[in-house]
Amino acid sequence: MSAYHTIYAVVRQIPVGKVATYGQIATLAGMTGQARLVGYALYRVTDSLEVPWHRVINAKGEISESPFRHGDDHLQRTLLEQEGVQFSPEGKISLKDYLWQPELDSSFEF
Predict the structure, then answer these.
(1) 42-75 pLDDT per residue, tens
(2) What pTM did the predictor assign?
(3) What share of the chain is helix, strand, coil (3-state, %, to 5)?
(4) Which DSSP symbol is given to 101?
(5) Residue 17 near residue 94 (C-beta atoms within 8 A)
(6) Are 10 and 56 spatial neighbours (Cβ–Cβ below 8 Å)?
(7) Of 2, 12, 5, which is closest to residue 109 (Cα–Cα)?
(8) With contact defined as beta carbons under 8 Å apart, do 20 and 31 qualify?
(9) Strand partners, 32
(10) Is 2 exposed, middle or buried (0-12, 13-18, 19+ CB in 10 A)?
(11) pLDDT tens by residue, 67-84
């Protein structure tokens, strides 16, 4: 399995209404310290892959904005809000409230 496919397999496990950080996904995928690789992989996601890329945020609880995402920064926030994730007035997500904790989720499989 390629690194990207491993990352996608982990991201598919994030439940609706929860988020994970790039670093967390890297660690769960067996690629500790490769948060940037997770970002590269998610940038390449197409609709046909059915990967909930929008549930991955940075360690500050923010959407990592990029001029290369062609408006997807706004889309990411909209998708998260549709799942019940709330943002602070500063645009942050409470990791205390919304961070996915797979060790507490018995359905996590890899």
Answers:
(1) 988 888 889 999 999 999 999 987 666 555 668 8
(2) 0.89
(3) 45, 5, 45
(4) -
(5) no
(6) no
(7) 12
(8) no
(9) none
(10) exposed
(11) 665 556 688 999 999 999
